[in-house]
Write a structure and sequence with these properties.
It is built from seven helices and six strands; from the N terminus they run E-E-E-H-E-H-E-H-H-H-H-E-H. It is of the alpha+beta class and 144 residues long. The chain has two domains: 70 residues, Herpes Virus-1; 64 residues, no CATH class. A hairpin with a 4-residue loop joins strand 1 and strand 2. The longest helix has 22 residues. The radius of gyration is 21 Å and the shape is elongated. The mean pLDDT is 85. It binds zinc ion. The site of zinc ion has 8 residues, from loops. Zinc ion (ZN) binds next to loops.
């Protein structure tokens, strides 16, 4: 709180030292927020998943929760680059990476196949992410 000058990190609402326990910690930003800016939500933090393979929910401010939610479906995390030790340690992740590499190999054949109907091509379009072997979304981690 001292590093924030006893103000909410969201709206800058000042707080007296004797009331600072009413402020809530946001693990996403690493700062304290007033109860108007932090309703008490909890969320899985992308950084904890990438660095510790930890899916425990942490307290997050309203803005932090909205940022995390907006990132959930974005393929931003290349685990081979970000944390190869986790890939080595987590067999399900290693298997998923191998399946995606396999899927990436067959992808050009599926999309150019003249024999197959529109059903498979529509499915491929809807599930295009699995044909990208390296980039993962946070949502795909929690589904595995
Ligand atoms: Zn606030």
């Amino acid at each position: 709180m001292r590093s924030q000058s006893f103000r909410c990190a969201g709206c800058s609402l000042p707080v007296e030292v004797k009331y600072m326990k009413t402020f809530r910690f946001c693990a996403y930003f690493g700062k304290y927020f007033c109860t108007s800016c932090h309703a008490g939500s909890r969320a899985v933090l992308p950084a904890r998943v990438v660095h510790k393979w930890d899916f425990g929910e942490q307290p997050v401010s309203d803005f932090g929760a909205s940022v995390i939610a907006s990132l959930a479906d974005e393929p931003l995390f290349c685990m081979d680059d970000l944390n190869p030790a986790v890939v080595k340690r987590v067999s399900r992740l290693r298997q998923a990476l191998q399946w995606r590499r396999d899927a990436a190999v067959i992808f050009p054949f599926i999309v150019t196949c003249k024999e197959e109907g529109e059903g498979i091509k529509r499915w491929v379009q809807q599930n295009r992410q699995i044909f990208r072997p390296l980039e993962y979304q946070i949502r795909s981690f929690s589904a595995s």
